[in-house]
Amino acid sequence: MLTNIDLNKMNRLMEENREAKQIISQLLENHHTTVSMIAHEIRNPLTLVSSSLQIIEAQHPEVKEFYNWNQTMEDVHFMCSLLNELSTFNNSSTLHYSVFSIEKLIKNVAVSFAISLDSENSAIRFSSKIASGMGDYTGDKIKLERVLLNLLKNAREAVNSDGIISLSANRNNDNIVIQCTDNGCGISAEIINKIFDPFVTYKENGTGLGLSSSKRIVEAHGGSISAESSDDKGTVFTVTLPI
Ligand SMILES: Nc1ncnc2c1ncn2[C@@H]1O[C@H](COP(=O)(O)OP(=O)(O)O)[C@@H](O)[C@H]1O
Ligand SMILES: [Mg+2]
């Protein structure tokens, strides 16, 4: 899988050399198709395995007592979410544009995140401050929602059970600036430059695809994403989207 540094080098080569541009574009297209096909071919049998395991568990609840049953269920669940995230990552630069209210989109994300915390009776305190009158935005609504949900999910995974998370959004001249702040474990200086690379995860059950997909999606909108953090002091992710 290409890292962001590789992608930058590749973009430079493509700008410098016409022939390289043609060949690299073709290779990228093939690579994209191959990843899609592999994900698709694995997802079909995996969905069948997952359904069969659920049926077995419903009809024979005693299997839960078997050694490794729960681990197997968790592994299958992990593989399903890995495939979903891989597809999201693979498609993150292909945008389906529409015109929508960015204020509404961010508010909806904030509400669904608050509901998910409520439904788990979580003691995490979440607040949002979303400016009104940010106007219409042209972009890929579903993918931008995914970016914000990725940031909130990471924030939730970084904080303790009584942590604090906030989401803010403002219009600054010709940019929409969205910030997701948490008072969680923070990100050390050694790894902060790697977290946007694909498959980089420091979590036991992480995929390492959330931030790399988010970066690709934001950059496909002409924007940028960055993280500021220090150990134990929490983290702020800033997404800037040009209008
Ligand atoms: N809010 C945050 N606080 C602390 N660390 C974070 C935060 N967000 C991301 N990270 C770090 O960045 C890594 C990559 O994140 P991500 O791409 O979403 O993959 P994953 O969540 O599957 O590990 C995480 O494993 C974690 O170490
Ligand atoms: Mg994540």
UniProtKB/TrEMBL annotation:
The keyword Acetylation does not apply. Its EC number is 2.7.13.3. Residues 37-243 form the Histidine kinase domain. It catalyses: ATP + protein L-histidine = ADP + protein N-phospho-L-histidine. Keywords: Kinase, Phosphoprotein, Transferase, Two-component regulatory system. InterPro entries: HATPase_C_sf, HATPase_dom, His_kinase_dom, HisK_dim/P_dom, HisK_dim/P_sf, Sig_transdc_His_kin-like_C. PROSITE patterns: HIS_KIN (PS50109). This is histidine kinase.
